[in-house]
Amino acid sequence: MATTVGLEVSYGQLAVFASSLKQPFNDWTDQHVSQGFAWRPGSVSFRTMVEAGRHSIEIDVANHVGAIHADVVRVIEVPFESPADGAVEVGSIAETVPLSLPPGSFLLRCEFLQPAGGAGERVRLTFAKKDAPRFAVVRADPELSASGELLTTAQPAPG
Q1: Measured distance CA(106)–CA(109) in Å, rounded
Q2: Strands 121-128, 136-139: parallel, antiparallel or unpaired by DSSP?
Q3: Would you tell me which CATH number, out of the four given (1.10.10.410, 1.10.3720.10, 3.30.70.100, 2.60.34.30), belongs to the domain 3-144?
Q4: CA distance 61 to 28
Q5: Which of 1, 123, 108, 101 is nearest to 60 (CA)?
Q6: Contact of 59 with 5, CB cutoff 8 Å
Q7: What are the CB-based long-range contacts (under 8 Å, 24+) for 143-150?
Q8: Res 159 pLDDT > 90
Q9: pLDDT tens by residue, 47-59
Q10: Which helix (DSSP H) or strand (DSSP E) does residue 7 occupy?
Q11: Domain spans, the chain
Q12: What Rg value do the Cα atoms of the chain yield, rounded?
């Protein structure tokens, strides 16, 4: 069952992280920006389509990710480990929303959808329990340059 939350995004990033992390946000390098994400265990930040503003985030926990729809502009998949207590947050520097996930390994798919008739930015996060975790830029828009090896390590952003 999907849940939809409204979030104020800032600094062009949407983060998913374990609530227990002391420094949950990631420090971006040029390569992270060009590939669209910065990842480390327990924390991933996705580059949003716009620098700031209200985003509608649909969050779903499923057995498998589905087909990618035609209205999806950007798709990135990364491994995500939900902690033993399942306490996770989704958000940006300005605002986060707590989630409760089953503990364990997931394939996390982040999809940026075309805005629908003035509804603002739309994002779908799918936590797939039974899909093999991997790093992939599945669909890139012109803003991304994900050729070559993906950078799958990041440092915590300075507090």
Answers
A1: 9
A2: unpaired
A3: 2.60.34.30
A4: 27
A5: 1
A6: yes
A7: 143/36, 143/47, 143/49, 143/74, 144/34, 144/35, 144/36, 144/47, 144/74, 145/34, 145/35, 146/34, 146/35, 146/36, 150/35
A8: no
A9: 999 999 999 999 9
A10: strand 3-9
A11: 3-144
A12: 14
Q: What is the per-residue pLDDT across 1-15, written as a single tens digit (0 to 9) for each?
A: 689 999 999 999 999
**Cα-based torsion angle of the residue sequence 19, 22, 27, 32 in order, rounded to the nearest 10 degrees:** -30
Which residue reads 């729809």 in tokens?
A: 69
Task: Give phi and psi for 35, each to the nearest 5.
Answer: -90, -15
Q: What is the reported pLDDT for 147?
A: 74
Residue 75's pLDDT band (boundaries 50, 70, 90)?
very high
Degrees, nearest 5: CA angle 21-26-32: 150
Contact 79, 105 (CB under 8 A): yes
The two tokens of residue 120 are 């603002």
